[in-house]
TrEMBL record:
Keywords: Membrane, Transmembrane, Transmembrane helix. The chain crosses the membrane at residues 14-32, 44-65, 85-103, 124-146, 166-187, 207-227, 233-256. Signal peptide: none annotated. It comes from Nitrosomonas oligotropha. PANTHER family: SLL0814 PROTEIN. The keyword Transferase does not apply. This is Putative membrane protein.
Amino acid sequence: MFDAAIDTIVMRPYVFTFFAAFLLACVPHLGWRKTLIFTLAGYLIAFTSEKLSITTGFPYGWYYYIDDTSHQELWVWGVPFFDSLSYVFLTYCSYTTALFILSPLATKGADLITLETRAIRHSWAALILGAFLQTFLDIIIDPVALQGNRWFLGQIYGYYEAGLHFGVPISNYLGWLLTSFLLVAALQQIDRKRDGKTPLGIFTMPFRSLLGPVLYLSVLVFNWIVTLWIGEYLIALTGILIFTLPIVMVIVLAALRVNRYRAEELQEHLENYPWSPLNKS
């Protein structure tokens, strides 16, 4: 088991690099306890959704895993371990990107800080936007993952019938949307527990508010690079065009919001999260 765990990391360094980036962003944001609880809960939700789909066709539609690597890396009841783990960091970076879009923005020196509040973190807007942001990540990921035999992922899965979107069925994206709702809702629920004092692991980190959105963009860029590398230029171009306008809109609207918050918004932020960098001289 130990050797398989090590081999899993060696075989999938990009996955565990993204997971390490998730820990680097999430722990200073939510603390160790909530980070670990969500990691476990998110993995179980993701694994259950994948196991259900390969046995019942719900929620992603019928697909199958190709067991060529279970002697080299961790598999859990017919599902590659790394695959379900990926949902954890994809959910967090999608959720925090939603928070970046929804929250007022403030600066302290060169740092950019989202004025998150409990109301914003636990809002239906963060839930819906986070779920759609995660689903749109999969619109970029799945077509290139389906070509895994042409790059270092390997051909680990397939669909019984070719779908409309570069071989991916629309049912897959509907399943991702449903699962993403559950994952973001679970993260929101875990975060609802009030902290009487600064949670263990939270500390002031420059540009901490940007780490989630940067992780989101990193996943996009990684998949675009792989897609171009294997010569699937139409898939890459389609994915880039899907995200160009949203990225420009987020950047422009963020620039317009910097330091244009109301006094009540700042007060609510500081009351909800007294460990905010804005509360320190």
